[in-house]
Amino acid sequence: MNHRIIAEQIFSAGVSRVLPEKLITKSMDLQDNHLLIGPLDFSLETVRNIYVIGAGKASAMMAGEVEKILGPRITEGHIVVKYGHSSKLKYIKVTEAGHPLPDSNGFKATSNILKIASKAGNNDLVICLLSGGGSALLPDFPSGSSLEELMKVNDLLINCGAGIKDINAVRKHLSVIKGGNLARAVYPAALVSLILSDVPGDPLDVIASGPTTPDPTTFQQALDVLEKFDLIKSTPGRLLKHLNDGKTGIRPETPKPGDPVFKNVHNLLIGTNRLALEAAAQKALDLKIHPFIIDDQLQGDADSVAEYIVKTSVEFKNNENEIKPVCLLFGGEITVKMTGKGRGGRSQHLALLCSKLLKDHPGITILSAGTDGNDGPTDAAGAVVDSDTVPDALAENVDPEKYLRDFDSYHFFEKEGGHIITGPTLTNVMDIIVAVVE
Predict the structure, then answer these.
(1) What are the backbone dihedrals phi and psi of residue 283, each rounded to the nearest 5 degrees, phi first?
(2) How far is CA 347 from the centre of its chain?
(3) Is the confidence at residue 45, as pLDDT, over 80?
(4) Which of 5, 93, 119, 261 is most exposed by smallest CB count within 10 Å?
(5) Same domain for 318 and 416?
(6) Which tens digits make up the pLDDT trace of 184-193?
(7) Residue 39 CB: number of other CB atoms within 10 A?
């Protein structure tokens, strides 16, 4: 069978395992007027109101599953999703907003979510649904500044090569909802967050900038990030002043571990990249291909990651003691420092980098794609390549190096083929890389 097709089938099996309809139904159930959420048991006879709030690419589908379970028991709700990721809901309001750059829709939704959170009191239950993209989809900005200034900082951070932990350290300290502040708004009501991780290692304080989680970072660390990536001079003055005011204690820090606002908070991780990789591995076994989960915390710059993936694949290829074919699985989220003005995303860029390294290594096929179905600002989830990708392109006078320099991987694969198109999957647990080695 065509190994490109096999790689795509393995990828699809991984995505299917982390769809919200499976994750929510496994995590939540209603039995005899008791709402069971993970290990928690809430008697609905003592719960006055149930509020459902949240943000992220998967949050609409998550909310739809919650509605199936709770229906009219939901007092009020509001979630915010990326454009094109909405679902039709009856009891919970849905707003579509900008991602990865925030917009006014996201700001209005954030304001309303905070209003709902502030209504919650004793004997109330707040269910918060969080997934990848939540940081950009819950935008707010310090008093005296503007949404445009916040958008500029987000743009600078996204394109400077910073990792998500550094990016979110800054976001948390320019917000009244991120970095545990949503938990502060909900207190003293019970708060249960159901979380899909889009961050390597699954740190709860980083996913969606940890709105319901204690924040270990500080104003000083946020300033250090801007310094590290040479963004101090580019950051709008009013936002920089806000961070400096926090550093000197003029503004309060985000709530830290041990803060009483977390007394009634339960953060439950229900979807991870590891779960997806395990399902992908099972699919490979079904196809009689021996799987190896190599790394579920892949991170770092695209060039070094491409070298790591191809080097590992070649080692398996050259190992005569290894029965072929094998499937190598990687998961995580890499970083790309943009210097060109082309169109693409980290998965397509990684695939194109791998194609360069594969040209002298026949028998290896590599697929790189995002589990959310959207790689960067494109309609592709990613791309699949092998040793023929570069030679075939050169034979048609298409220079891969030019597309790499321009960060224009989307148009390369549009010309040469290899795109993985799934449409929005309505989930998000980072990226999956599948290497099939003959």
Answers:
(1) -65, -40
(2) 13
(3) yes
(4) 5
(5) yes
(6) 999 999 999 9
(7) 7
